[in-house]
Amino acid sequence: MLRGLHISLRLALVAALFSLGAFAEDRYVVKVTGDINGIAQKHGLKVVGSLTGSASGHFVLASSHIDPAAILRSLRMEFAVQTAETDSAVQLPGITAKAQVHPASFSASSRMSGISSSLVSYYTTRAASAYVSQPAGGVINLAKAHTLANGDGTVIATIDTGADLFHPVLAGTIMPGWDFIHGSFGGMERADKNAAAAPLLAQETTPILDQETTPILDGGTAMILLQQETTPILDQETTPILDSSLYPAYGHGTMVAGLLHLVAPKARILPLRTFAADGSSTISQIVQALHYAADMNVDVVNMSFSVSTDSPALKNAINYAASRGLVLVAAAGNDGQATQVWPASYQSVIGVGSTNNFDIRSLFSNYGNSLVTLAAPGEGLITIYPYSHYAQVWGTSFSSPLVAGGAALLLDIDSKLNRTIVGKDLSNATYIGQELGAGELDLYQACLSVKNKDN
Asked: What whole-number distance in Å separates Cα of residue 438 and Cα of residue 375?
């Protein structure tokens, strides 16, 4: 299903331009129909690169010591320039103290107590029983859904911090993707700022991050558990071994991939590493990842991030991916407000809010029927973490992959479904009000609706 060694090689040349150190100048993302070199020269700019995609038309221009507002005004006056915006840095909500979120349904002292686990068979691998049989699976009717589909034959791209390509739970399903941070093949999750500290993650019994202080990406939290070999679940009220300021988002992509695999265990997962371990990205990198996914003909894209300001380039990339038939799923964000965030607010995207395991909206989850298409559990989920670890996580970042994995189940049953029909079938949910769209995800009912139409 995936094609494109030529795409990867072309992308390597483009992405390399973006990976040569921090940006030393202002950058602009423009969509043009004319001669980009002539436009750049006219306005004293240089062409940094072309954003990958057969229908993109987007370029990144750069300048030094020029007023950005004046540059944008002059670019927008050009007849050949359709859109122009700054290549905004995207620092996902949850990295700053202002956006910290603590679990809504569990006290700090009780949330880890009494949980233990052993290894069990799960399709072609072995995984912790606490991961395979967690309560959230019952909420979304996962076991019954697996009697109808398991995601076989589908590919899910995840735009995130990459993934641990060697985690044993993902064996046979994780694919080499692309690293848009370094411009390289693979999509391996990296601890960018201090790679020498990575071996600490392999310790047998020491919890990794103190999540009383370290939110992950869009406001979710994660507590790191033990290794694959032993898998007891520890109380995390202990000293962290990493400086969380260096790694505020490290592991997020692996945790998301683990939940995709939980729901769609036979689907293949393509990690598109677009966010660094500190949670940072840019609009141009996200646009590149969306075009890459579309040109690779993946089936589903999971986007466990949100930005508070709409972007013409992001909207165009979303529309391009949707026009290619991709099912697009995004987190609704964790501000606890009725608000608009993107890409979840786009009409062609399934926006996902969070609940606890009792169909109650999470205190941290954004809401509003114009934002949230449906909800899924997002509190205390158990998933995988780099170096054969597991983690317990909170946030709409982790509700989203439950829905994206569900889309893969539907496409397993009927590969001819388009994104609109997938969205409608997933909306065969348990209505719970609370401005959470169609309600709580019910994968069995969603799969059954597709199965009945095929018969």
From this structure: 8
Residue 257: C-alpha distances to residues 141, 172, 265, 353 (Å):
20, 13, 11, 18
pTM, full prediction: 0.84
Q: What does the alpha-carbon distance between residue 131 and residue 65 come to, in Å, rounded to a whole number?
A: 52
Tell me: do 288 and 390 sit in the same domain. Answer: yes
Which tokens belong to 315?
A: 């909207």
What range defines the domain where residue 120 resides?
97-454
Judge if 297 and 434 occupy the same domain.
Answer: yes
Clarify whether residues 252 and 275 are in a common domain: yes
Structure confidence by residue, pLDDT tens digits, 305-355: 998 889 999 999 999 999 999 999 999 999 999 999 999 999 999 999 999
Show the tokens assigned to 143.
């076991």
Half-sphere exposure of 439 (CA within 13 A, CB side): 16
Phi, psi of 362 (to 5 degrees): -65, 140
**CA nearest to 53, candidates 286, 270, 290:** 290
Number of domains in the chain: 2
Torsion of CA 226, 227, 231, 237, to 10 degrees: 0
Write the pLDDT tens digit of every residue in 241-255. Answer: 334 445 778 889 999
Q: 236: domain CATH number?
A: 3.40.50.200
Give domain status of residue 92, yes or no: no
Q: Which residues of 263-288 are buried (b: 16+ CB within 10 A; e: fewer)?
A: bbbbbbbbbbbbbbbbbbbbbbbbbb
CA distance 160 to 331: 12
